């Protein structure tokens, strides 16, 4: 078994594809963005937190069905709310937060057989990952996909608002000092603009089968 790193900007389809790739290969999926969102929720609710104590204060667990539990509370839906999405890239820029989560992500994936999606998996978390993918799409295509998800959740948000939100989050993630979003040198670039979910999934599964 190998580990597969999937990085790229916001709403490029990483999590949808990563889940499908994991299912096709019989691997586990680790949503590292959800972990940054969980910490963002915790810090929002506990404003006086000492960032050096994160490992004592925070327990993050994913259930078999992919639900996220923060200190035994199901926060799967809460971490997707727009006030968390707006704050997450500033929390993800904090050194203590990154040190805590990178360590946790390495521990979880150490037994191999994981598909991880995020921003720094191929560059920082698992520089030795056997397969690295950098997934992109234009901001318009990404916002359009996010719009469909938001409408399905009952949020009547406008496309232009989503384009602005996505562009701002990408800029923050690409320009932060620690582990900015970059394409690892040995990552395969996949632009998903003109590809279906199944086409992208099959491509990655093929690459993975060549590695094992
Ligand atoms: O993947 P998702 O959009 O849920 O990620 C939310 C945020 O978490 C990103 O915008 C980024 O700021 C942060 N993140 C990160 N490193 C990762 C995964 C996510 O900094 N590996």
From TrEMBL:
InterPro entries: Cytidylate_kin, Cytidylate_kinase_dom, P-loop_NTPase. ATP binds at residues 8-16. GO terms for molecular function: ATP binding; dCMP kinase activity. Belongs to the cytidylate kinase family. Type 1 subfamily. It comes from Phocicoccus pinnipedialis. One of its GO terms (biological process) is pyrimidine nucleotide metabolic process. It is an enzyme of class 2 (transferase). SUPFAM superfamilies: P-loop containing nucleoside triphosphate hydrolases. Signal peptide: none annotated. This is Cytidylate kinase. It comes from the Bacteria. CDD domains: CMPK. Its EC number is 2.7.4.25. It catalyses: dCMP + ATP = dCDP + ADP; CMP + ATP = CDP + ADP. The gene is cmk. Residues 4-209 form the Cytidylate kinase domain. Its main location: cytoplasm. It is found in: Cytoplasm. One of its GO terms (cellular component) is cytoplasm. It holds the Pfam family Cytidylate_kin. Keywords: ATP-binding, Cytoplasm, Kinase, Nucleotide-binding, Transferase. HAMAP family: Cytidyl_kinase_type1.
